[in-house]
UniProtKB/TrEMBL annotation:
It comes from the Bacteria. This is DUF4293 family protein. It holds the Pfam family DUF4293. The chain crosses the membrane at residues 51-76, 88-112, 124-144. It comes from Odoribacter splanchnicus (strain ATCC 29572 / DSM 20712 / CIP 104287 / JCM 15291 / NCTC 10825 / 1651/6). Keywords: Membrane, Transmembrane, Transmembrane helix.
Amino acid sequence: MIQRIQSLFLLCTAIVTGLLFFMPVASIVVPNNFTYAFYTTKVVQAGSPCVFITWNWMSLILNALITTLAVVTIFIHHKKSKTVKPTLFLQLRLCIVNIVLQLGLIVLMWLQVRQRSNELNAEWFADISFIFPLIGVIFTWLAIRGIVKDITLLKSFDRIR
């Protein structure tokens, strides 16, 4: 359901991690004046004609999985009274998995950029989009807080009956 606050946070997570497909994560500057732009999907040589170097399959798959999982988690919620509690617990678990995957993406991006810069004997500089997975972790954590509030609300209704 879109009208729940955790759904908005998960939508923000999907948007932020979806932006990683189109924005460079880091720049690798080689001493002979070449600059490589490192995306989660590919590595390109920056310049007037952008030259494609290689694909980043691991970070591409992981980023696609994170974005898809955030969108799927939004639409799991059911309004039927007997299935609300199990779906909330499923949403909670999927959000925790999403946080672990996002932290893994941060580590993977750092390792890939560092490895590529060591191969080229170059320096690397993180762009602003390098922290997008961390922003996604914060949004997912806020969604978890909303899900936990829904669970405690349902438990209080069960006590009243």
